[in-house]
Amino acid sequence: MYLIVGLGNPGPDYMHTRHNVGFDCLDMLASDIGASLDRTRFRGYFGEGRIGTEKVLLLKPSTYMNLSGESVGEAAAFYKIPPENIILVYDDISLEVGRLRIRKKGSPGGHNGIKSVTAHLGTDLFPRVKIGIGGPQRDLVRHVLGRFQPEEREVMDRTLTAAKDAVIAMVRTGIDSAISEYNSFRAEQVSS
Fold it and tell me: I need a surface site. Which of 26, 29, 89, 133 has the fewest CB within 10 A?
C-alpha cells in the first residue's frame, strides 16, 4: 500500500498557486485512477484507489503547508505505511517551471512543508516528486502564493501531467525506473 500526498494550502484563495502544485497534481491523479478526495480524514482530504494491483491512499493535508506533517504522520501511523511507500508531491523554487525532479530521500531544502513531514515521520527517507515553480524575482512568499503567468500556465499543465505519470510509474515500475524516465523531463520539449 502507498500513501501519495500532494502538498498545498486549503481554500479558494490558494487554488492553483505555485505553492499548490502538489494539490493540483493529486487532483489529476485521483481523476486518472477514478478515485475521489471527498472524505475528510487525518486533517486532510482523503481518498483511495488503485494503481495497477497496488492500493493507494491519496491525501491533501488541510493543515496549511507548514503543518503538513501532522496530517501525513497521522495517516502513515494509522495505516502503518513505511516511509519508503509515502510519496510526496510538492513545489520546488530551485527548479525552473517545466522541470521535475524525483528523489528517494533528502533534506527539506528550506521547504517548510517537507520540514514538517520530516519532523513528524522522524526521517527524510521518503520518495518525492518535486515540481519546478521557478525562483522568486524578489519576495519569496509573494512568489509561492502567486499564480502562474499566462505563458507559464500551459507549460505547468504539461508538467503536472508528467508529475502525475511519474507518480504512477513510481508505484507500477519502481522509483529507479521513474527517476530514469522523468528526471530529464522538460515541458518545453513536449509538443501540445
Answer: 29
